[in-house]
Amino acid sequence: MVEVPYQNDTTMLLTCKRILKTGFTEATQIKTEFPLKIRNQQKIHTFRFGDRWKPGHKIHFWDESPRNKKHFDPPPRQFTIPIESAHQWSDEDKKGKIYPLCYATETWDMIFHTTQPLMEQISFLSIGGYPITPIWHLTAVANNDGLTLSQFRAYFFHAIMENAIEGMKLEGKWVNRKKWHDQPELPNTITGTGQIIHWTDKIYYKDQAQILQLPDNARKSTKNIGSLPNCNLTSLPE
């Protein structure tokens, strides 16, 4: 575990997609309802590519990105969450507002086999270096992210595959007019890495996580969400 000192000077936008692509056609798109799920504590974290987030960052939740106002109806908007839906909150700003904080981050890695049917791929996720198996542990992680296991797996396969396709195009390996699975130089495996952003204290592997070091007078949630039905975290293997 790495404890990160409390800092209250960085604000991050956490944008929630209304539609997730789980394939290459409109028929594979799904509506997420993430704002409602975050408020109701059905979604208690988010997976993000990259490593931009740190514990202590103030979270501004957005229903879609404010940079894409012309592409959505209704337009993107910032939304608030109940005090019990986050573990740690910021100090009051000049307007008297408080914001949920990123309480912890964990690293994740995914590896998919391009020659194997997606539904047969079980051991595709690691958190903090720990492989997530068996399937009911994967299901718990997906549910905590506001998705079913099939949605979670399909979305990240599609996102990582899109990155792989862009890489193939840049390297001159992409053959036009051929679908991705017919590409002669398609790699056998595709990989992605990133962070899990936690705004609750429900962390999978504390020994590998970065966790906010709290001052004694820190503003905490007034309710314990440990009994939530989707928070099946204690069964994950050490």
Describe the secondary structure blueprint for this structure.
Blueprint: E1 2-5, E2 11-16, E3 19-21, E4 29-31, H1 34-39, E5 45-49, E6 58-63, E7 77-78, E8 88-89, E9 104-113, E10 125-127, E11 130-131, H2 135-144, H3 149-170, E12 189-198, E13 210-213, E14 219-220
Parallel strand pairs: 1-13, 2-6
Antiparallel strand pairs: 3-4, 5-12, 6-7, 8-14, 9-10, 9-12, 9-13, 10-11
Helix pairs in contact: 2-3
Broad structural category: alpha+beta
Query: What Rg do the Cα atoms give?
Result: 19 Å
Strand tally is: 14
Largest sheet, strands/sense/barrel = 7 strands, mixed
Content of β-strand = 25-35%
Distance between the termini: 13 Å
Q: Could you estimate the helical fraction of the residues in percent?
A: 10-25%
How many distinct domains?
1
How many helices does DSSP assign? 3
Secondary-structure element string: EEEEHEEEEEEEHHEEE
As residue ranges, the low-confidence spans are 222-235
Condensed summary:
The chain is of the alpha+beta class and 238 residues long. The chain has 3 helices and 14 strands.
